[in-house]
Amino acid sequence: MTAGLIAIIVVLVVVLGTLARSVRIVPQARAAVIERLGRYVRTASPGLTLLVPFVDRMRPMIDLREQVVSFPPQPVITSDNLTVGVDSVIYFQVTEPRAATYEIANYIQAVEQLTITTLRNVIGSLNLEQALTSRDEINSKLRGVLDEATGPWGIRVARVEIKAIDPPPSIQDAMEQQMRADRNKRALILTAEGQRESAIKTAEGNKAAQILDAEGRKQAAILSAEAERQSRILKAEGERAALYLAAQGQAKAVETTFAAIHAAKPDPALLAYQYLQTLPQIAKGDANKMWVVPSEFSKALDGLAKMTGDGDTEPSWLAQTGTGAGAAGDASIDTSSWFDSNLPPAAEQPEAVDFRASDADPDSIAAEMDAPGAHAADVAEILRERLPTQDDPPPPAPSP
Question: What is the biggest distance separating any 2 CA atoms in the chain, rounded to whole angstroms?
């Protein structure tokens, strides 16, 4: 190999090395800081970038995409002196490659330490219950503080999330017992409310049943009283008719007996005989211990001797013959009308009208309608039906 060929090869190598140092390709969503003689010149955007050989230098590329950094659980003390483990995650994005390069040495480590300190400050002002139930508030406070602190570094904090807050095991047991007791309490409350609703519904049903039973018994009592009233009215009418007929029969019997006696013209001997027949009835009775013979007994015996006669003459009462209109066997006695009551119908009698006067009473009508608050129109309609009008013929007067 000649010296000229070696020189050419060396020149080509130098040219290729120079070109390799002069040409750079920046990928999409990346950025590169270019320094010239150690001083910041510009920020290379994605695409082909040319550098001045041996003068310009490109710093390591910076990722402009949103990054997710998860930090290990950190012990944090709450305001009620309980140590809890907080596991958090942060989402951030580099917006200024120059500031992220020259304003902070390691922005990822800086964001991690800033998150831990801020988390301790925020949760340290809360008790355990607030820390467990206020995650959104904690996330908002962390994001505000971190975004304000990382702004000069060219970093934008998109969001901060608390993945887990782990209290000590003893506190977890106490919380589980408290939760179990609270659930038991709510279960007992729901059971008591169910029993109360059931008791209320049962009481309402019993009340309705008792009301219906009372209304039924009321209606039955009204109907029973009405039936008893009608029965008593009819029975009284029957008894009155029977008494009237008995009185008529007794009157006819007395009248006939009186006529027969007057027609037969009895003498004292016959009366003495009837007197002697009555004496045994006077002595009859269990309470009679002693019987006093009346003073008229001797007179009765004299009359009885006259009834038998002197042996030759016939007794005077056997010889008597009736001449009056009421003598035995007289066909002039008319018995065809003896059993005619000559009474008006029961419904037209004054007693029946008085007994049924309650039919026109509004209270009785309302009771029969089984409606404590019966309408006035219904009561008036029933009154018009029951009360006689001017067009109705008057009831016949009772016969004397």
Answer: 226
Q: How far is CA 281 from CA 275, 277, 290, in A?
A: 10, 8, 14
Of 114, 203, 189, 124, whose CA–CA distance to 157 is shortest?
114
| Angular region, 51: left φ>0, alpha ψ -120 to 50, beta rest | beta
- Among candidates 224, 247, 223, 243, which has minimal Cα distance to 235? 243
Backbone angles phi and psi of 288, in degrees to 5: -80, 110
Q: What is the pLDDT of residues 234-268, one digit of tens each?
A: 898 888 888 888 888 888 888 887 777 777 766 66
Where does residue 122 rank: exposed (0-12), middle (13-18), buried (19+ CB within 10 A)?
Answer: buried
Cβ-Cβ contacts under 8 Å for 329 (sequence gap 6 or more): none
Residues 148-165: tens digit of each pLDDT: 888 888 999 888 888 888
Q: What pTM, to 2 d.p., does this model score? A: 0.43
Compute the distance between CA of residue 219 and CA of residue 239 in angstroms, rounded to an integer: 30
Of the candidates 109, 105, 118, the residue with the CA atom closest to the CA atom of residue 149: 118
Helix, strand, coil share (%) of the chain residues, nearest 5: 55, 15, 30
Q: How far apart are CA 169 and CA 162, in angstroms?
A: 20
What dihedral do alpha carbons 372, 374, 376, 379 form, nearest 10°? -100
pLDDT at residue 279 in the model: 67
Asked if 113 and 106 touch (Cβ cutoff 8 Å), the reply is no
Which H or E element spans position 35?
strand 30-36
Instruction: Report CA dihedral (386, 389, 391, 392) to the nearest 10 degrees.
Output: 40
Looking at residue 308, what is its pLDDT? 54
Look up residue 307 and give its DSSP letter.
H
